[in-house]
Write a structure and sequence with these properties.
single chain, alpha+beta, Jelly Rolls, 3 domains, two-stranded antiparallel ribbon, 25 strands, globular, disordered N terminus
Length: about 350
């Protein structure tokens, strides 16, 4: 009969006890997180996808403004302001909001039911590919509110003299206490704060050309064959990775280039983001979708991202990883797919 030394029994029991308490703590924590932090906040969140030049941002993480960075979340309370010659692009699922220079835009509401922006001054372009998103979106200005009747591409300018609405494609409405107007593809409405409006043909400029080139890029994307276009950040997957189909996981996306020793949630930072709590902001330009939707799996000696089944509007999560027992022990939270984890 093999003998076991008393200190070995004690060490084994101690490890088992710690693991048992850790499991209990983890389960309790996940229940609390799932009920309080992940269930209550909205499942629709936007992201900063491009910053060209000087810009400022404020949001639920800070009372002071800061320079926006790629993959930073956008939600209710986010304000973005651009320098005179700067541009910023924000994505909310398949919808895109682009800011020209000298523009200030605030999200008064961004949740599962509505996207309400407030254009203080400047120029924005709004692209809607999904009708529900279009119907749920409004842009409030000093003189009235712009709403969208169809999918399409729109430009809105707010100046000291009034508001201009250019409908490149689609249909939009203007409503104010003084008057209501509608415009369709190819028309521009110039509306004074006195309520009077005139309709003209659209004249494009450099901002419109830039917007059109970005839209053409989006129109060529292959990622919507594998993920819902309402998954914020899907637009980066084509350029920076490749897709393969596996028997166990279905479509899997692999990043094309990573540094030695790369692993999910290793290169980036945690921020305490409003109602969502601790939220991961990835350093990689392709890091938004793969950090907040789906799961990572270790397959054939490398990390692959598993988006899961395509659904009309995926639910955003602050991060799909949890940890316990110190900074060297971490694992993913995985539901309905083979186990996924890493140390």
């Amino acid at each position: 009969m093999n003998r076991t030394e008393p200190h070995a029994i004690a060490q084994t029991a101690s490890r088992h006890t710690l693991l048992r308490y850790a499991r209990v703590w983890l389960i309790a924590s996940l229940v609390v997180l799932g009920g309080a932090a992940w269930a209550d906040p909205p499942g629709r969140v936007g992201a900063v996808s491009l910053v060209d030049g000087e810009a400022w941002m404020s949001d639920p993480t800070s009372s002071e403004s800061f320079a926006p960075s790629i993959n930073w979340p956008v939600s209710t309370g986010t304000t973005v302001e651009t320098g005179m010659t700067s541009r910023v692009e924000l994505r909310i699922g398949s919808s895109v909001v682009r800011l020209d220079g000298d523009t200030k835009l605030r999200f008064d509401r961004l949740d599962d039911a509505a996207i309400r922006m407030r254009l203080d001054h400047g120029t924005i372009s709004v692209r809607h590919r999904n009708l529900d998103n279009a119907l749920e979106t409004t842009v409030v200005t000093a003189g009235g509110t712009v709403s969208f009747v169809e999918t399409g591409r729109y430009r809105i300018d707010a100046t000291d003299n009034g508001v201009s609405i250019a409908v490149m494609q689609g249909a939009a409405r203007w409503d104010s206490p003084r008057a209501s107007y509608g415009a369709r593809t190819g028309l521009r409405m110039d509306i004074g704060y006195d309520g009077y409006a005139r309709s003209t043909d659209i004249a494009t400029d450099g901002f419109d050309d830039w917007v059109a080139s970005r839209d053409r890029r989006d129109d060529r994307l292959a990622a919507p064959r594998y993920v819902s276009p309402e998954m914020t950040g899907y637009d980066t997957l084509d350029q920076d990775g490749v897709w393969q189909t596996t028997a166990d996981y279905g479509p899997v996306w692999y990043p094309r280039v990573v540094v030695a020793g790369w692993a999910p949630y290793r290169y980036g930072r945690w921020v305490n983001y409003g109602a969502w709590g601790w939220t991961w902001v990835d350093d990689a330009p392709w890091g938004f979708a793969v950090s907040h939707y789906g799961r990572w799996a270790w397959l054939d000696g490398r990390w692959g991202w598993v988006p899961g089944a395509i659904v009309p509007r995926p639910v955003w999560a602050p991060a799909l990883v949890a940890w316990a027992g110190g900074s060297n022990w971490s694992f993913s939270v995985s539901l309905g797919v083979p186990a996924v984890g890493w140390v």
